[in-house]
Amino acid sequence: MKRPLQVLALATAALLALPALGQQTASIDQQGSNSTATIKQDNLPVGANAQITQGRGSGSLAIIEQAGEKADASIDQAGDNQAARIVQNNAGGSATIFQRGAGNSADVAQKVIGGTAKVRQEGTGNSVTIAQGVPDAFADVTQLGTNNKASINEPSGTILGSTVFQNGTGNVADIDLSGDENQAGGRQVGNDNSMAINVHGGSRLSGIVDQTGSNNVAEIDLTGTTSAAQISQTGTGNKAFITSAGDGNFATIVQGGRNNWAKIDQLGNGLTATIAQNNLLPGGGNYARIVQR
């Protein structure tokens, strides 16, 4: 008669020899106080990986929900009253959230095949929302400072890329990107700057905003094919707007100084327009508009 330990060893070896079914991996490491962490993995025949780490601090919340094969999600929190959630509902998604400071919030929702989302928050009261519904979508947000807000929406199309970098206080960035092989990027260094980039369908479109200063406003709206728009702002209280609907268009606005206003409208193909205000000499209060058809 086999001894109990021998039977147990044989049973364990038999189980290890079986092929892995779900290959689901979940890990939670909590080292602070009064924090909550939840991982939910539903019916994943090819498996998934989820990891939550909550370090020094208290009152934080972390949630990972996975219903997609080969999904990978990671939340790393330290500090007080942080909130993070990752929801993955399709195959091959990858999402990471890294939080330091206090009172930051991040929400990532992926309904994509092979989407990638990255969030890094180091400061106080910052918020990020990322929604991806596009195969091979990419979104990356970095926030350093206080009370900054960033939103990226990639609802339809293929191979889209969005990036936002914020360092300061009270900056707001919104990106809405759809179509094929389109990209958008925003950089805000300063206080109370606002930017919005909207790309509606089309292909190989690019919108870029770079803001250094305070209380600047920039908006880009693109449709068509192989067009690009860029707004660069330094100074205070400047406003810039670009609308481009067509193929092969290029538009640039560069603003320095104070309280300048500029707008470019392109309604046609093969158009190029540039506006520069107080980027070389001090001043302000200028008005400029270009309309091309």
β-sheet strand percentage: over 45%
- Give the termini separation: 93 Å
Structural class assignment: mainly beta
Largest sheet, strands/sense/barrel: 12 strands, parallel
Can you tell me the residue ranges where pLDDT is under 50 for at least 5 consecutive residues?
Answer: 14-21
Average pLDDT across residues? 92
**Shape category:** flat
Helix-strand sequence? HEEEEEEEEEEEEEEEEEEEEEEEEEE
> Given the structure, what is the number of helices?
1
Strand order, sheet with most strands: 1-3-5-7-9-11-14-17-19-21-23-25
What is the β-strand count? 26
Radius of gyration: 24 Å
Multimeric organization: single chain
What is the helix fraction of residues, given as a range? under 10%
InterPro entries: Curlin_rpt
Keywords: Signal
Family: Belongs to the CsgA/CsgB family.
Protein name: Curlin associated repeat-containing protein
Walk me through what this model shows.
It comes from Massilia agilis. Belongs to the CsgA/CsgB family. This is Curlin associated repeat-containing protein. Keywords: Signal. The protein is mainly β and 293 residues long. The chain has one helix at 4-17; strands spanning 24-30, 36-41, 48-54, 61-66, 71-77, 83-88, 94-102, 105-110, 116-124, 127-132, 138-146, 149-154, 157-158, 161-169, 172-177, 179-180, 183-191, 194-199, 206-214, 217-225, 228-236, 239-247, 250-255, 261-267, 272-277, 287-292. The chain has a twelve-stranded parallel β-sheet, with no helix packed on it. Strands 2-4-6-8-10-12-15-18-20-22-24-26 form a twelve-stranded parallel β-sheet, with no helix packed on it. Strands 13-16 form a two-stranded parallel sheet. The N and C termini lie far apart (93 Å). Mean pLDDT is 92; it is low at 14-21.
